[in-house]
Design goal:
GO molecular function: DNA binding
Strand order of the largest sheet: 2-1-3-4-5-6
Strand content: 5-15%
CATH superfamily of the largest domain: Response regulator
Keywords: DNA-binding, Phosphoprotein, Transcription, Transcription regulation
Structural class: alpha/beta
Pfam family, one: GerE
CATH topology of the largest domain: Rossmann fold
Order of helices and strands: EHEHEHEHEHEHHHHHH
Helix content: 40-55%
Number of domains: 2
Protein name: DNA-binding response regulator
Shape: elongated
InterPro entries: CheY-like_superfamily, NreC/VraR/RcsB-like_REC, Sig_transdc_resp-reg_C-effctor, Sig_transdc_resp-reg_receiver, Tscrpt_reg_LuxR_C, WalR-like
Length: 218
Amino acid sequence: MSDELIRVLLADDHPVYREGLAMLLASIPGIEVVGTAATGVEAVERAAELQPDIVVMDVTMPELDGIEATRRVVADSPHIGVVVLTMSEEDSTLFAAMRAGARGYLLKGANQAEITRAIVAVAHGEAIFGPAVALRVAEFFAGPSAASDLGAFPQLTPRERDILSLVAAGRSNAQIASTLFLSQKTVRNNVSNIFAKLHVADRAEAIVRAREAGLGRT
């Protein structure tokens, strides 16, 4: 990272918000906006080209969603810190972003001080969440069934466990695909793998097993 400036790339498909945020950040000493991107694909390409210190990444974007774009940016350039800035308050989106490699997560509506603090913190190697998001993370891990969530079904992959939790919450494959930014085919394949690993015959039996283990909290 530059000793003087934190170089930032902004990725958001809404031009008014994107340009407004660019102007806001450009006015802050120590931060330089080196570029913007309007799609997930463009975010990945511009990150590779510009090598910023930070990418501020929206989740819902055309061509490639922000979760997958984050995964590709971090895989290509591990030194780049990604701060997700999104409207989504879904726990599944938060944890998907974390697994993709994001080191910051803020909700749109965060004020200038919160955004600046997150950019500076992540640029210095920290992980940071906005106040509302941090509370959700704390509540998740402090919940009465958090331990059983984390220790249940060790034979499942993290993605399979996420999908099983949503199955237990009564979500359809289409809803799960939308929530986790996956194709319905990927969800179907994972659900089949879950049934095989748990030795259950159908969705109803999987739901019973999952809820007994504490998954599927609403």
